Amino acid sequence: MKIIENQPDINRRTLGVTFPTDHQANVVLWAPLAKQVALSINDHVTNLPLTNDDSGYWHLETDQLKSGDTYTFVLDDEKVCADPASLAQPQGVYGPSQAVDTNKFYWEDSCWINPPLDDYTVYELDVRTFSPEGTYDAVVRQLGQLKKRGINALLIKSLSSVIASPDELFLYATQASYGGPYQLHHLVNACHYEGIAVILDINYTEISKQNAYLKFHRSNKQKVNQRESTFANDSQRGAGRRYVIENALMWFRDFHIDALRLNAVYTLPDSEQILTEIRAYTDQLTDQTGTHYCLLVEHELANKSFTGNKATQNTHQDNELLSVSAIENSSSFFTDNQPNKLPIKTYREDCMYDQYFSSVLRELFGRQTQPGNSGELLRSF
């Protein structure tokens, strides 16, 4: 078995369950403490064993797992776990994962062009409260109304329900009650048809509490100690970075998301390195697809300047902060929304990647900005 390094692939997702062909599923799980790992499909009695590559990852190639099947991992013949890179949890966070073949998504947005970031007029949307149905399909039916109000960017504030357990988080999955990955795909297609960009709000606040990709990958018989916690050594840190970076690339590449707002990224270990690598891989993806993507990273301290990695190398000076404010004079579909209470957001400009900016400003991440000259970057409703 060839040892796979912790290097994301911009062309495809490599973690969890993927389908390189119609008749083959590739399964990859990070479980460095497990002695045995098996795959259970649709609660069948017979499980399929995975092979350890001696780097902490377990692998399986099989024709027995199909898109739509439910599956779990069994560790050391004892602990049953959902897939931390699952794209769907149809029975909730404590149920089995569901295999999703994103190659089956039918896209109709080949003519879509993501507008420059400073042209976005953003509507912040909570799927659960936006409509009585609380689904992505219900949002699709209101896109015409949003467009009439001048909205050209839709920010989905949370992919998970607020009632989901903070102890079991699935960074790759969207809430089943919202319609799951298939309705999200439909929403993005419909938004692009209407000339509306889609932004996802990714929140890392609870990831460290959950120990991200690694915490529950031990059997109950194994003793837990502090040294074995997430990112406790280089291989674990690398696996954690790969997990987060591949997640960002998945939304751009597989779901055609136009922008990601990364919240609480500083709660992650190696946050600076993660941001740098997300930025670099996003750049590579843009070079390959010709599509430009946006990254918004909220600054950890609103009153503190910073120096990004590229800025350090190029200018050895701090960059200033770029403020993003909200318009206060708009009504909303939310009955409880108070536009005048929306917070002013402050974002790191060295991590705010936009292909249009890069072509004009030469070195987006190393240049200095003058406070007060940037204007209103995002108009938020």
UniProtKB/TrEMBL annotation:
Gene Ontology BP, a term: carbohydrate metabolic process
Domain of life of the organism encoding this protein: Bacteria
InterPro entries in the record: GH, Glyco_hydro_13_N, Ig-like_fold, Ig_E-set
Record-level Gene Ontology MF annotations: hydrolase activity, hydrolyzing O-glycosyl compounds
Glycoside hydrolase family 13 N-terminal domain ranges (all copies): 15-79
Protein keywords: Carbohydrate metabolism
Protein name: Carbohydrate-binding module 48 (Isoamylase N-terminal domain)
Organism: Spirosoma endophyticum
